[in-house]
Amino acid sequence: MENQNPVHVFATWKVKEGEIETVLNLLETVQKESEKEKGNLFYKIHQSNSDVNTLVLFEGYTNEAAVAAHRNSAHFQEFVLGKIVPLLENREIVLTTPVHYL
Question: Are the C-beta atoms of residues 93 and 11 closer than 8 Å to each other?
Fold first, then answer.
């Protein structure tokens, strides 16, 4: 059964040397378009304090279907998969569900 709880995505990207400005510029468009998605709760981009070539994306979606819609969106396909991924050395993605204590 599909998770109907909010889903948070933590994506850690190691950008190839000399490509960080290009990736950050492309991410500006991805962020703006992602925030317009119906199921998007937030889309935050962080840069490591110890390594400028490491980015951590923190994204929130209403449920798993919203994550799937994001991954199938034109901007994700064109910008993330088509233009950004080739500029990365490494890419790790963790999907999480927030823990709530009673």
Answer: yes
